[in-house]
Write a structure and sequence with these properties.
alpha+beta, 6-stranded antiparallel beta sheet, two-stranded antiparallel sheet
């Protein structure tokens, strides 16, 4: 399986203030993880992440060259990417896109055919933030629409995720 160089890290959902800050909905483990990057990519363009702070689960970021609210507004709804080579993952941690469709091999060497990427097996919604549910909707929209109850924070399904190691 080929690994993509650029990883979807989030989406600019709004401006913040009038000085050009942007509010990023982070699709990684945490806004703190994204805040550590020196460069992000929007529309295939490298942009220096000058500074960032976490506010209510979002990353409020100052991006180089985004100096006013109009410049920040032009980025609204754009996907933010990181370069894989800039990511320092802890041992045993993987990017979600790297494990979707991966073969499963038990400690005894028995292997299983990978499930298709669009077939969820389990999900414990109590563990997911709104941004994670948004990400899940991108990957499993039909299944979630058919199976999620009105209040998804009280449901339990199973998805092929590696616990405590998904970024």
């Amino acid at each position: 399986m080929d690994k993509k160089q650029f990883i979807e890290a989030g989406k600019v959902v709004n401006t913040h203030g009038v000085k050009g800050e942007v509010k990023i909905q982070v699709w990684l483990d945490s806004p703190e993880f994204l805040k550590k990057f020196k460069t992000v990519y929007i529309d295939n363009r490298a942009i220096k992440l000058v500074s960032g702070r976490v506010h209510k689960g979002f990353l409020i970021a100052v991006l180089d060259g985004v100096d006013d609210v109009n410049a920040a507004m032009s980025l609204k709804n754009k996907t933010v990417f990181i370069d894989r080579k800039d990511a320092k993952l802890p041992k045993g941690a993987y990017f979600l896109q790297d494990i979707i469709g991966a073969a499963v091999v038990t400690e005894d060497g028995e292997s299983y055919t990978p499930l298709p990427a669009d077939v969820p097996v389990s999900m414990n919604c109590w563990a997911f933030s709104n941004s994670m549910l948004d990400e899940l909707y991108k990957r499993f929209p039909a299944w979630l629409d058919a199976n999620l109850p009105v209040n998804p924070t009280k449901c339990e399904y199973f998805l092929p995720f590696v616990t405590n190691a998904m970024i």
